[in-house]
Amino acid sequence: MPAIKAALIGTGRIAQEHLACVQQLPGVEMSGVCDRYGAVAEMTAERFGVGAWFSDHRRMLEVLKPDVVHVTTPPTSHVPLVLDALDAGCHVFVEKPITTSYGDFLLLKTRAEERRRFLIEDHNFTFNEPIRRILGLMNSGEFGEVQHVDVFYCASLLGAWSPFADRNATHPAFALKGGPIADILPHLASLTYVFVGPHISVRTLWRRTGAAEHLPKDEFRALVEAERGTATLGFSSHAQPNSIWVRVYGKKMQAEANLMEPRLNIDRLRPCNPGLLPLRNGIQESWDVGKGAVRGFWRRLAGRPLSNEGMWELLRRTYAALQTGAEPPVSMSQLDAVSRLVADLTKEELQF
């Protein structure tokens, strides 16, 4: 079977993860990279051993005729790039947010369905190992019916390593409705979807509590009613340390994961005296925390991804589906539901 030919548009920081991952996939060849700054494209191609580089994406599509295109440019540029790739007959893997509006998403959805091509947004957190384990327990029936999920993302927008801190180099996320927080909303929305399904209604609270006037908002909270349960979503630029907490409450179990580390804690109903249940679950939690810390340490030493490890798994499954003719790992109905939720989370009339 000939190798699947991939190409990439946009060689910024997240593109490095895409390129590093594709290098490890059997039967996949990264044939070209493109950036509007030719020198940057050339440097990236040399670093990752890619055979060709371009500064014009249409020229790259015409010359290389790739099977798959990764779009890793700022979200305001996604629509024309994705449309060009779909019209060239390519499957498209696009970084979040897939578009800046739900209407634009519907345009891409319609074109992808007309061309019968994969269109996948990087819902990477839903493929992180702890999330996959919780979903496995749900699918087996062990977890019980999910009642509620809580997703809380803590990351300083003004920290030393934050791309949003420099007032003199405006990040593309400031063009989004909701600013830098909107850049993170697809993470919160996709995790909500996989646990409690499409949303029915939302209520939001957006706040600016810090002194940085160039940040439109720095705190966000939402309450979501969904088809299979409820969710609370949040982002804080001030709660530290940086973390991505996911807590899932079911009828038979409760699960807690911090996606910044490969750690998962599960509280179960166990066949013992109810008074001893907290002790048994506490002992198990201590073991899980220690084991997760050791695994995280060795992953860092090995240079393996932690919070982005889900993207590697999602890309692996995407290319495996293309090789075998299976369904894509992220369905179009999931993309639609997540895009609708993101749009509703940024509607000013829903704030209170």
Structure description:
The protein has two domains: 4-121, Rossmann fold (3-Layer(aba) Sandwich); 125-260 and 342-350, Dihydrodipicolinate Reductase, domain 2, CATH 3.30.360.10. The chain has helices at residues 13-23, 38-48, 57-64, 78-87, 102-115, 129-140, 185-196, 277-301, 309-324, 332-345; strands spanning 4-9, 28-34, 53-54, 68-71, 91-94, 119-121, 146-154, 199-207, 219-226, 229-236, 243-250, 253-258, 263-268. Strand 11 (243-250) and strand 12 form a beta hairpin. 43% of the residues are buried. The chain is globular. Helix 1 (13-23) crosses helix 9, helix 4 runs parallel beside helix 5 and helix 5 packs antiparallel against helix 10 (332-345). It starts with a strand and ends in a 7-residue tail after the last helix. Helices cover 38% and strands 23% of the residues. It is built from ten helices and 13 strands. By secondary structure, the protein is α/β, with parallel strands linked by helices. The strands form two sheets. It has a seven-stranded mixed β-sheet.
Shape descriptor = globular
SSE string, helices as H and strands as E: EHEHEHEHEHEHEHEEEEEEHHH
The spatial strand order of the largest sheet comes to 8-9-10-7-11-12-13
The total beta strand count reads 13
Average pLDDT reading: 89
What is the share of helical residues? 25-40%
Low-confidence stretches: none
The CATH homologous superfamily of the largest domain is named: Dihydrodipicolinate Reductase, domain 2
